Structure prediction request, 425 residues.
Amino acid sequence: MKVLMFGWEFPPHIAGGLGTACYGLTKGLAKHQVDVLFVMPRATGDEDQRSARILNASDVEMFTNITAISEFWKRINFLEIGSNLIPYVGPEEFEKIVNESYKAGESHSTISFQNKYQFSGKYGSNLMEEVARYAIVAASIAMQQSFDVIHAHDWLTYAAGVAAKRVSGKPLVVHVHATEFDRSGENINQTVYDIEQMGMQAADCVITVSNLTRNTVITKYGIDPTKVVTVHNAVDFDHFAENHETRGVKEKVVTFLGRITFQKGPEYFIEAAGKVLKSYPNVRFVMAGSGDMLNRSIRRVAKLGIATHFHFTGFLHGADVPRMFSHSDVYVMPSVSEPFGISPLEAMRSNVPTIISKQSGVAEVLKYAIKIDFWDVNALADAMYGLLAYPALSQMATRCGLEEVNALKWDNAARQVVNIYKNIL
Prediction:
């Protein structure tokens, strides 16, 4: 079976859990004899291609010699966006070029565009423009490649998946790793919401990473429940070999690892840390990550007078993540809204007892992580104190957590995804 898969990032260049999940799933699919062509906006060439062939969208030449013109235009709907699609060409000239190309194509039964879009592949101010361009490139790729199923990861690639479906007629799976309600609460970006809903409605199957997210998809987006299926994420064991590095501090270490944004609940971690230090001063707290709440978090730590016990590392890349876990005694994920959350699995795989919010999808599959409401700072502080002060509790959570997470393999998740492919085919 061949799958045309659209993503936005892939290790080693990732900004969060999306790239990690895509990597784990492609490795699992490879073990089930699924041939994956993974398209991303900008590939650097150092991606691991043992389980998936990486196609750099920035290298794709657009719509070369399309002969079935009438059929092509029937299958394409264009979304107007506030930007030029051809670099360095003004709006009037752009319209003239397109109109002349269209007329030429109708008379000669051929359209030829010799264009490549250079994507940044980042999450910058021109993100919407890149999302729209990615969809156009996806249509070209779908006409050039042979495949059985289209699989699009998260809202950034939904338009690409829909475009590929319309030109190829092949079934589409969209994979919901997070929704706009997770990222923004009730103050959603309407454009992003509309793209998400469009992708889910056009899909033959919608995969969600938790039942929590499945409920959001059904109730907030109005998607038919019969085509929404939960496939829980897993953890990639390969990068978590035994790490025997010597710790540079004598105190115990409590770690927060993730984007420092509203969704991840960093302020609750800081408030709980302040409470723990009043009863257990022999501890350091690490906030590993970056985000729009970083400066605010630093100011709050200073105001609480706990800066000598608090460390901000910035975003951690690659091997630095397991290294950070090897230095940790407790891992905390106090997310306000977390569709799943792979980092607790990685922590438990690294023998680190873990505290997670009840408002996370991963809470559905873990018994031996301590679960608290994200807003209950006192409960969070109590959980931290218990794991720090009582070795028997920490040892039990470590032992049972490792056994539990070892059963959550990407091979099993991939098997479920393969069954979904077969059903829609």
In short: The two ends are 11 Å apart (CA to CA). The chain has two domains: 2-62+116-234+413-424, 237-405. The first helix runs from residue 17 to 31. The chain has a mean pLDDT of 86.
